[in-house]
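This part of the workshop introduces the protein records we will be handling. A record pairs a protein's sequence with a compact description of its fold. As an example, a complete record with its sequence and its structure tokens follows.

_____
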Amino acid sequence: MKIPDLDKRKHIGKIMLTYSGAAWVIIQVISFIISQYELPIALLDVSILLFIFGLPAAFAYALYGNVLTKNIKLVYGFNLILALGVISFYFIKPNSLHPNQIKFLKFKSNQKEIAQNIQSLAILPFSNFTGDTNKDYLSYAIHDAMITEIGSNSPLRVISKTSSLAIKDSKKSIQDIAKELKVDAVLEGSISSANDLIKVSVSLVSAFPEELQLWTKVYSVSMSELLNVYSTITKNLAEEIELPLTQEELVKLNQKSSVDPAAYEAYLKGKYNMGLLTQEGIMAAQGYFEKSIKIDPDFAASYAALGGIWSFLKQMNFVTTDQAAPHITPNIQKAKALDPDLAEVYYWDAINLVWTDYNWDAGETAFIKAIDLNPNSSETRGLYSNFLLGQNRIEKARKEMDIALDLDPKNPFILTLNTVNLFIEGNFGECIELCKKLQVTPPNNPLVNLSFFMSYAAIKDYDNLIKHAIIWLEFENHQDVIPVMEQTYKEEGVKAAFLKTCQALENKDTSKLMAQTMFNFYAITGDVDKTLDWIEKSYIRRDPDIPAINAIPILNPYRNEPRLIEIINRLKFQNPNID
């Protein structure tokens, strides 16, 4: 074959540059089409391979174009065979010939390798770029939904909502956030609007060994389609980082849900207000969920949330068990009938079965189902741990609490539940230190105060015990008996102080006294009959504290009392050796 002259060879660089530029443009177009129409990512790999193997042909054309054109059919046939061979070999042995493993594409290789090694993820709060602060509820709700969707349908450890919200508006780098939350990568997101569409933008950013954007995509949807965008994002993310999804998870992600847009908007506003954790927010949320159900009577999530509202009101003693019960079970059962795979339904069902019905077996079954549907729900894990404590399954309770803390290390609710674990485990000093950190979130949290009270009673630190007994009385609006406690403690000591305080309280309307307060206060006095009388009242009222009666240390001196044994037998606690 004749060697081309010098003038012709001058064009080689130009031809090769043109080929490379055209290849790059075509690859970007193919990448866009694959992303837009959710096609298999392998198509991009094959395209890259074809262009790589086409380089020698381009070089040959640049050098010997005149000679090759005389045998054009032979050339086309050779290239077609080569292309088919590359495609066939790739699909037969996809891991043997991978473009991302080629040295001069090392950057893309690093991206792929980093993505495939992601085991844990924090989803940062979504930014509201709509220009309308009234849409804040929407960014909050999408953030919450993305955590639930990815946490429910992937093997990733996904940091729960409260801990990710704790770093909102933080100036910390991605690496600092990842170190703090102990994750490999973060998913950033924002919402904006265009005409009647909501644009949801997401970006996956790895943290180590350096910050690197691995994937980004924008989804434009109407409010009626928003409910399905979460599963689409999850599916696209799973494909991008090659998560091993089960067949059941794939089926769930491919299912489409429909809801009236106005009903869904009311539901999202309800979730936003519920997350404020104030009595005003809870009442506003109740109104939104009821509105959502009225608009769309077949939307399961609103029934589950409404049942949850009433459970929350009962647990916080804002309403009595009798007031709440008619609203809890019917809403939960309706939600379960409409959507038997909704994790939130089983979460609220478990709370109702345990802390209202005292149905331990059914309650645990509901907890396990909720965890199976969403293993990344820290609050489900934390409350399951709390349930296990009451069953005296202390080791199992600690395991579940440690998982909850790992999923949501900044969540005050989980940390507060952990104080209960600590004092029941006998770690009173550690419990007190944690309670001190939690005193300001919010101040005088009744459960934190209970943990303080129990721990100070156990270590016989009576000055602090009296301090937290007074906080307890203030929380229940019994300020009128506080002087009795303070004066008696100074003059007669701790037992007399609690005895005279209890007697002063019993001179009031006893139907409005919290039984938990009375039997804990009487337990310190050593008055067996009065302590057990109030435990009995707590059982009759079906107070939410009774499921822990078998484990709280303040009652240890009374464990051999026949009446307490009889009450505990009546409750039919589970066998603590079943784990």
Notes: The domain at 261-368 is CATH 1.25.40.10 (Serine Threonine Protein Phosphatase 5, Tetratricopeptide repeat). Strands lie at 120-123, 127-128, 157-158, 185-194, 197-206, 212-221. Confidence is low (pLDDT under 50) at residues 95-107.
